[in-house]
Amino acid sequence: MQLRTQEYVLNMGPVHPSTHGVFRMRVTLDGEVVVDLEPVFGYLHRGVEKLAEERAWGGIIPLTDRLDYVSSMSNNFAYVTAVEKLAGITVPERAEYIRVIMAELQRIAAHFVSVGSFLNDCGAYFTPFLYMYRERETIVDLFDMVCGQRLLYNYMRIGGVSQDLPDEFLPALRKTIPHLKQRFDEHDRLLKENEILIARTRGVGILPRETAISIGASGPTLRGSGVAWDIRKKDPYSIYDRFEFDIPVGEQGDSYDRYRVRMEEMRQSARIIEQAMEQIPPRGEIMADVPRVLHIPPGEVYSRIEAPTGELGFHLVSDGSIAPYRCHIRAPSLMNLTALRDMVRGWKIQDLIVIFGSIAITMGEVDR
Amino acid sequence: MANPWVHWAVFTVIGIAFVLVMVIAAIYIERRGIAYFAARVGPNRTGPFGIFQAIADAIKVLFKEMITPAQSDKLVYWLAPAVVFAPVIMAYAVIPFQNGAVLADLNIGLLFVIAISTLSTLGVFMAGWSSGNKYSMLGAMRMVAAVVSYEIPVVLAMAGVALLAGSLSLNDIVLAQQRVPFILLQPLGFLVLFLGGCAEINRSPFDLMEADSELTAGFHTEYSGMKFAMFYLGEYGEAVLMSTIIATLFLGGWQGPVLPPWLWLLVKIVLVFFTMVWTRATLPRVRIDQLMALAWKFMFPLALINLLLSGIEVLAWPQVLPLYLIPVNLAALVILVLLWSKLYRVGGGRVEV
Amino acid sequence: MLKFERYGIGIAKGMAVTLRNLFRHRVTTQYPEERLVVSRRIRGNQLIWKEDKCTGCATCAKTCPQGAIRVVTAPDEENNYTVINFEVDSGYCIACGLCVEACPYTALFLAYQYELARYRRRELVLDRDELALIEVTPSAYARPELEATLPRQDLLINRKE
Prior knowledge:
The complex is a heterotrimer.
Chain A: E1 8-12, E2 24-30, E3 33-40, H1 48-52, H2 61-65, H3 72-87, H4 93-122, H5 127-147, E4 156-157, E5 160-161, H6 169-191, H7 195-201, H8 209-215, H9 220-224, H10 231-234, H11 255-279, E6 299-307, E7 310-318, E8 326-330, H12 332-337, H13 340-344, H14 349-359, H15 363-367
Antiparallel strand pairs in A: 1-2, 2-3, 4-5, 6-7, 7-8
Helix pairs in contact in A: 3-4, 4-5, 4-11, 4-14, 5-6, 6-11, 11-14
Chain B: H1 4-37, H2 53-62, H3 74-90, H4 109-130, H5 134-165, H6 170-175, H7 182-185, H8 187-200, H9 226-250, H10 261-282, H11 288-316, H12 322-343
Chain C: H1 9-22, E1 47-49, H2 59-63, E2 69-75, E3 81-89, H3 98-102, E4 108-110, E5 125-126, H4 128-133
Antiparallel strand pairs in C: 1-4, 2-3, 3-5
């Protein structure tokens, strides 16, 4: 005679210590095993796409800062490259190099946040999280030096960047990059071969290759599953074709692979920054000749970049006025999130937290 | 001692004062220690160097409203914190502070300690059950499963020490370590007792019972006010108790060259507790089925083999100097840990739904 | 040869790293007693308006993405524009700095401070009299001529280990 058991629904509500941001999951559990998962999001919806229709082309840049608030420079970069493609504006050399340096520094900083939060969810009581934030602080100081803010930069403009680098930026950057490389090694010594971490994350939450491609995943989630797809190599934008770097790729698609892909990407970003520091022209224009009130002839464009979370795309439709007719944002975190239910079924609650942490979404992007 | 009642009264006061002061000190060491490991400064504003932080927290908690959930089982809900905290103080009745300075020199002291410290688990389950909350129930069930699994390796490790010392009385065990502390003679037992002890008292890396990044707060979610403070103090009290037991059984209790004996005991307790804080700051958490697998497949066989080896040593070489047994035991530790890590499979994983 | 893996060496390495960090310099700044020198280009949360340079063109109001600036002008006797009121809602302002970049007469600056707060929300709406009373150093955001007058920023990378 078999005992009759009952499944129950647990609500991991919008306010929860471990879901990154306001995200609600209604989990159907059989004991400790997850049977079904229903994600509910939209708690951070601010109507960014509608607000963009009421602001001039240049005034949308502060709005794009607040999408993936952890990697604000990348969002700016995606938007201004889309507008430049639509309007046919060429960006001067020095501005391109500055943009690449900022984007790669931002990638390192955003990965510090993602990996730190992931390790915090695995249970290491704040220590790796705070180490990573300490290293991120050195990068944020550099951003502060350039544009005056530490989180939401509003730095890139249509046609270039807003202000030139101050004199002490490049010496400070030359000191920061070797320091960061040393700290990458130290973080690897801390947790890369830790038996408990390997037991917790190896083989957990496997995203198979075909599923990853068919749901439109991108970024470290896709590369962890073994697909070597990086927009900087396959569809180069800006001046990325002048730099040499590798794309780290995982093998199985489990949480450990996604974590390792992020750590290796940080090293590759440091490599790109070193090359850019050598090649940057010492003097030059930082902004193309763009009228203050920009009118773009009617047309539409879809342009994408490799943001730290994945492929961030902007679809802009212009009808000749000072504001876009439609601005749609292809949010990478939302696409990566659609695989959560299938990845999690059959695992336990603790694995659910680990898997969710390894996808590393930011709710600002999911809800817009 | 002339009058047994005076003896008992003095030691009761000393015991309770010791526990309360050590718990406050343990909270301070933990908060400052974890902060220093993470490149930040812990509490440093209340009092010089922040030593009154725990007292400030206790006063704050006294002012909070004690909310009782409507669906809870009132009597059990009310009794649970007391059942958790009382055994911690009671177990100090048999810990020796000096040669013969013990509240009650029971000749089954070790058995008493094990029996009493297991009673706290009952209190935890009472708390989880009576809260009427799914999170609390999950936390309480995990706790009971973990404690029951880890009792066996812990008891076997302690039994190994009792074999070497030839007695269950804690005072005799300390006296038997006059030449060599037992940590050198039984490193495997020390490892099992340290890890098993951490698991029994819910410390990292085994703190999934109150994993605050997963289950909000586990079995004490619904508690507020002074009842929550008793759980909190009980958790640190058990940590100090486990440190005291390890210090007494393996590090030589109150023995030491220059300082007074009770100071040596304090130093050893702080040392063991600091190691627990260090592991908490570094290691991630294990999953519940990995926790059980570790207890049954890794620690239980190792503890049994440890007991077997101690028995062989005591019977076969009773006249050999203890110093010669040290390399034998260290070699056994290294070989066994390597061998078991080769053979040990975690198991668990995805279940078909 | 038997290959041993996962016998606790990873844990030991991790604990060695933590122990090394125990003896490193702490990163916390004890706030009210020690303050860090902020960036020269900090976008502080208050606007500084130079009345003598402003001509009432309202380019700043048109550029502001939030609509936080309100400029009221009227023609005077010689048919020149005079500014009757210049109002900034500091609570609505997101300190993006687009107005500072847009002003053609360099009449606007962002403040060099971050510690400005008020108790009531309506006190955050500053009109021309209150803006004239503010005595805060302007920051060098989009004003390169001010950069040499402000002190160097405190960088974490320059602090000793």
